[in-house]
Amino acid sequence: MANQTFPGGISPGHFKDTKDKPIESLELPKKVYIPMEQHIGAPCTPTVEVGDYVKTGQKIGESDKFVSAPVHASISGEVVDIVQYNHPLGNTSQTVVIESDGQDEPDYQDEEQTVNLDSFSAEEIKNVVKEAGIVGLGGATFPTHVKISPPEDKPIDTVLINGAECEPFLTSDHRLMVEQAEKIIFGLRAIMKAVNCDRGIIAIEDNKPDAVEAMNSLVTDDDSLEVMTFETKYPQGAEKQLIKAALDREVPSGGLPMDVGCVVNNTGTALAVADALRTNKPILERVVTISGPGIEQSGNFMVRLGTLASDLIEQLGGMGDQTRKIIMGGPMMGISQPNADFPVIKGTSGVLLLTDQEVQIFEERPCINCGRCVDSCPISLLPNLLGTFMEHERPDKAEDFNALDCIECGCCTYICPARRPLVHYIRVAKGEIMAKRQNK
Ligand code: SF4
Ligand code: SF4
């Protein structure tokens, strides 16, 4: 039987040359730039001042709002500045700058402890997750403690661990599943306990047989856990598409996975939950795929948050002269950067250095009404029309045609032979529709 999937989607090619490269550590950064906004929700306010000494893992920013996540020092040393600095999602953000003392003195337990989940209540797990600043590490950066605290009228029956990693180039989740399967399973069990459910699924695309094998080897004697493999197709890793493929449930328009009894977490997020429970270690580093023809030494690297991409690139042999585009994340949903002076944040799954060859495919021509964007849309929208509406500055029409349901997967833009920037038009439409609603 063919592996499961969802309607629509595209096959943009893999480009996953780094999939067999084990996760490597890099030199401790001499300086880190840690933004107070690394999550969806209220930004944090610094809890330190210039001149303070901080340990690795010490909390340096927090908010009293529920939808937020604290941020922590990723190295030990002195706070040398608190400034507005480049943010990879655009513009600038309040940023705590720490200069390393070279000691990397931890503010958490250095040694992993054997932890029995029976000794934690659901509330205690949620609290540990919150204090550790854990957010969706697939790139969405929604605070995990909020995600695992559904209201009472939304019971959860299934937790899915999203190991699809359908974006071309990115392989950080793949490597984590191969190298850290046990921790991911522990994190999954902890999340299942937090949401009071007894079914866990690890969802993996069928282009990662070694990850499937690694995860399968740990679930064979546990009936509550299952590894599912899915057809390799973009955007298999989008929450709604994953739920459709795994459980044949449709998340309603404007709804959330909890509306159909599900919680979806990324593999890195599950691993971070395990770390927080076993060592009290907050999110202070993550695996980043650094790839593309513009970088000499590509691979998967454990990177301290706040490290500048420019420092990473320098350590890895520098940026090739042919580099035309730098992207934070994958080529489909990632954010194009004006330069490499941006810090790695919790949502940085990759840093890509692309050359002319990859960039030229995005040059725009007039629509030829081929309909391919419509066929590729996993939400069954009409991207061609949405684009045309926005060319004529008609967000009201885009709203009538459900622009707000767009998951910004980029399939329509990718498949379009005229290279029309459809997802850009739709993002603009969504922004204008939301602004109009807020004004009302
Ligand atoms: S309209 Fe939105 S959801 Fe549909 S393919 Fe384009 S980006 Fe994806
Ligand atoms: S895929 Fe591009 S060219 Fe074809 S209908 Fe959609 S917008 Fe037009």
TrEMBL record:
Residue ranges constituting the 4Fe-4S ferredoxin-type domain according to the UniProt record: 357-388, 397-426
UniProt entry tagged with the keyword Membrane: yes
Topology of this chain in the membrane: Peripheral membrane protein
Any one Pfam family match given in the protein's UniProt record, by short name: RnfC_N
A GO molecular function held by the record: metal ion binding
Cofactor: [4Fe-4S] cluster
Record has Chaperone as a keyword: no
GO terms, biological process: electron transport chain
Subcellular location: Cell membrane
Gene3D superfamilies: 3.30.70.20, NADH-ubiquinone oxidoreductase 51kDa subunit (3.40.50.11540)
Region described as Disordered: spans on this chain: 1-22
One GO CC term on file: plasma membrane
Entry function: Part of a membrane-bound complex that couples electron transfer with translocation of ions across the membrane.
Subunit structure: The complex is composed of six subunits: RnfA, RnfB, RnfC, RnfD, RnfE and RnfG.
Similarity comment: Belongs to the 4Fe4S bacterial-type ferredoxin family. RnfC subfamily.
PANTHER family: ION-TRANSLOCATING OXIDOREDUCTASE COMPLEX SUBUNIT C
Protein name (record): Ion-translocating oxidoreductase complex subunit C
Source organism per UniProt: Natranaerobius thermophilus (strain ATCC BAA-1301 / DSM 18059 / JW/NM-WN-LF)
